[in-house]
Amino acid sequence: MLTVAQALDKILEGATALAPQRLPIEQALGRTLAEDVVARESHPYFASSAMDGYALGSLEPVCTQIGSVAAGQWPDFPLEPGQCCRIFTGAPLPQGTVAVVPQEEARAQSPHIHFSGDLQPGAHMRPAGQHFDAGQTLLGAGCQLNSARIGLAALLGNPHLLCIPAPRVALISTGDELVELDQPLGPAQVRNSNIYAMQAQVLACGGQAVRLPIVPDQPQLLRQALLDCLDQVDAIVTCGGASVGDHDHVQTVLRELGADLQLWKVAMRPGKPLGYARLGHKPVIALPGNPVSCYVGFELFVRPLLDRLQGGPGRGLQVIEAQLAQHVQKKVGLRFFMRCRLQEDQVTLAGSQDSHLFRSIAESDGLLELAEEVQALSVGTPVRVLLWPWVRPTAKRG
Ligand code: AMP
Ligand code: MG
């Protein structure tokens, strides 16, 4: 049985970034950029006015107005000393402009304009190339495209960006007892809730989920489901049937298909019966069916895998350092991940830790991580907490 760290190493060892694709900029949010993005033109592209007002040909308190320029028009006249023109924000400055005066500081007495206040050379003028020059690299390969960087890439004139695409992840849940959400719940039946949590987790990790129909506990149906999706996805995540009971077929079926089984048990709680194999060089992670184990197993192993497939280092949940506000104890030899709540930097357990009780996942702030060798910890002990992605930390980073 591998430790959590060994299992994660094994999963990341075999994973590399997906081949980059040129994507429309509208689809690039969250993607990792796979090329440097270089400015096509300098910016601003032309000298323009920063205000609605008057462009002046010389710094004189009275000038003669000779024209008007709006945004989008090109001035076909120069300004001589003693001349001015009406100008609007973003409009190109006529040749010879030495300053712009806001309209609030101007008084028209046709054909003359009187200016009050100090006339400063260069005032309210936006010089060409002030922001960046053509040929300058403003976004480097490897950065993750957030909305600000998308805006910058657009400013640089790129309708398409070479990016690492969203990994496609097939999700398969197995179990004779499972029913879809829109079906009435019969005796001995269980809602296929895990697959919706996993679908949301995949999306939250920047992936694209391909949700397969429920697979009953029949090896040939599981085999077919795996083969059907294999070519269309970058990774497969199964849930349920990963243990060694009479109705757990995931391991056997993967073996029969010639998959390379790399691990099939991790020294952790929840989620010990967790497998990882490579099927036709694609990663398959087999998560246990218990809803908490499935959710936690995804966050600990699938999240880093998806990060790696997207060109990242294999980032998992954010870890912070906090302090135990209650006594905890555990079994030695397993790494524990206990649902917990955080108040400032004080950690308490979020109710029962049974792995079929999912509610406490939704009612917690993250997972208290307790190392294999720990048996009991007292109040005040510094501990690591893995934060759910939607929780904003108030404690200091660990
Ligand atoms: P298994 O890992 O197949 O032994 O399943 C362990 C427990 O998780 C059983 O109580 C299952 O009914 C439950 N379970 C399995 N798959 C799902 C699922 N997709 N959604 C919710 N519960 C599940
Ligand atoms: Mg089962």
Please explain how this structure is put together:
The protein folds into four domains: 159 residues, MoaB/Mog-like domain (Molybdenum Cofactor Biosythetic Enzyme, Chain A, 3-Layer(aba) Sandwich); 48 residues, Molybdopterin biosynthesis moea protein, domain 2 (Alpha-Beta Complex), CATH 3.90.105.10; 79 residues, Molybdopterin biosynthesis moeA protein, domain 3, CATH 2.170.190.11; 69 residues, Beta Barrel (Beta-clip). Helices cover 18% and strands 30% of the residues. α1 packs parallel to α6 and α4 packs across α5. The relative contact order is 0.13. Adenosine monophosphate binds next to α3.
Summarize this structure briefly.
The chain has helices at residues 4-13, 147-155, 193-204, 219-230, 250-256, 291-309, 359-362, and strands spanning 21-24, 32-33, 37-38, 48-49, 53-56, 62-69, 83-87, 99-102, 106-109, 112-115, 125-126, 137-139, 160-164, 168-173, 178-179, 190-191, 208-211, 235-239, 260-264, 268-269, 275-279, 282-287, 319-324, 328-329, 335-343, 346-349, 366-370, 376-377, 382-387. The protein is of the alpha+beta class and 398 residues long.
Task: Please specify the SSE layout and strand pairing.
Layout lengths: L3 H10 L7 E4 L7 E2 L3 E2 L9 E2 L3 E4 L5 E8 L13 E5 L11 E4 L3 E4 L2 E4 L9 E2 L10 E3 L7 H9 L4 E5 L3 E6 L4 E2 L10 E2 L1 H12 L3 E4 L7 H12 L4 E5 L10 H7 L3 E5 L3 E2 L5 E5 L2 E6 L3 H19 L9 E6 L3 E2 L5 E9 L2 E4 L9 H4 L3 E5 L5 E2 L4 E6 L11
Parallel strand pairs: 6-7, 14-17, 14-18, 15-16, 18-22, 20-25, 23-26
Antiparallel strand pairs: 1-13, 2-13, 3-12, 4-11, 5-7, 5-8, 6-10, 9-10, 19-21, 21-22, 23-29, 24-28, 25-26, 25-27, 27-29
Helix pairs in contact: 1-6, 3-6, 4-5
The structure holds adenosine monophosphate (AMP) and magnesium ion.
